[in-house]
């Protein structure tokens, strides 16, 4: 491959697809998501986008998929973990298996990505590993117990990676999106909300691209982004 490799997980109709479009201008992009049909459509529509269907809950499948990507394209120089396990529930009644599932997607899959991809970056002396998150990584609101602990763990895991890998040339960063992301299901769910609270995926992706390409003399670990109408 003549272009460097970028890996994006969680390629859904919103942020994930926008990330692929943004990075595909300069990279061969390996796309991971459960929806094989969506990935096939994107790989047809976007030059340099390559489809790798996989469920991030399945650690064995993740490992196999990462090996396929390396064999097909080469070692990624940028990884963006955008896949997310979420959900809301009452602390007294939600099923613990939901929390377990979210840990697998949000935290353990990130660890797999780091362990699989960082060694080649260290050898190259450069690379970037990003995770997209939200403000559940900083606070545990009452109904967010099935997700917030896993996003907090994700952020802290990535901070540990940043401290360990930064001196070896690998930039690790967390991009938290304090907003309702504008996709069809959120528009339906928040039908009574004004446009001002929605964050556009096409505006999120360039911030991730910017963070991934910062000069090593001024790396950011965290970026928190929100639309102007979001109270905080």
Query: What share of the residues lie within helices?
Result: 40-55%
Instruction: Kindly report the average pLDDT value.
Output: 95
* Helix-strand topology string: EHEHEHEHEHEEHEHE
Number of strands: 9
The gross shape turns out to be globular
Q: Which structural class best describes the helix and strand composition? A: alpha/beta
Helical segment count = 7
Fraction in beta strands: 15-25%
Q: Could you describe the largest sheet, including whether it forms a barrel? A: 7 strands, parallel
Give an overview of the whole structure.
- The structure is a single chain.
- The protein has 232 residues and is of the alpha/beta class.
- Helix content is 42%, strand content 19%.
- The protein is built from 7 helices and 9 strands.
- The strands form 2 sheets. A 7-stranded parallel beta sheet has the order 3-2-1-4-5-6-9, with helices on both faces. The protein has a two-stranded parallel sheet with strand order 7-8.
- Helix 1 packs across helix 7, helix 3 runs parallel beside helix 4 and helix 4 (96-124) runs parallel beside helix 5 (148-165).
- The longest helix is centred in the middle third of the chain and has 29 residues, at 96-124.
- The model has no long low-confidence stretch (mean pLDDT 95).
Short description:
The protein has helices at 15-23, 36-45, 59-72, 96-124, 148-165, 184-189, 201-212; strands at residues 5-9, 28-33, 49-53, 78-81, 127-133, 170-177, 180-181, 198-199, 222-225.
């Amino acid at each position: 491959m003549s272009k460097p490799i970028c890996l994006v997980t969680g390629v859904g109709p919103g942020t994930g697809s926008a990330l692929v479009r943004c990075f595909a201008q300069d990279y061969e992009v390996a796309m991971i998501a459960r929806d094989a049909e969506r990935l096939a459509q994107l790989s047809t529509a976007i030059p340099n986008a390559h489809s790798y269907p996989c469920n991030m809950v399945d650690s064995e499948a993740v490992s196999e998929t990462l090996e396929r990507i390396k064999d097909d394209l080469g070692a990624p120089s940028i990884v963006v973990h955008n896949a997310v396990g979420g959900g809301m529930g009452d602390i007294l009644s939600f099923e613990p298996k939901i929390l377990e599932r979210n840990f697998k997607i949000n935290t353990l899959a990130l660890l797999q990505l780091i362990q699989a991809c960082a060694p080649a970056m260290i050898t190259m002396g450069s690379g970037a590993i990003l995770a997209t998150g939200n403000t559940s990584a900083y606070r545990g609101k009452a109904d967010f117990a099935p997700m917030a602990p896993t996003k907090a763990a994700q952020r802290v895991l990535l901070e540990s990676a940043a401290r360990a890998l930064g001196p070896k040339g690998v930039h690790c960063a967390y991009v938290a999106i304090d907003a309702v992301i504008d996709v069809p299901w959120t528009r339906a769910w928040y039908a009574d909300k004004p446009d001002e609270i929605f964050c556009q995926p096409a505006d999120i992706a360039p911030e991730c691209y910017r963070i991934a390409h910062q000069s090593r003399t001024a790396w950011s670990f965290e970026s928190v982004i929100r639309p102007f109408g979001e109270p905080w």
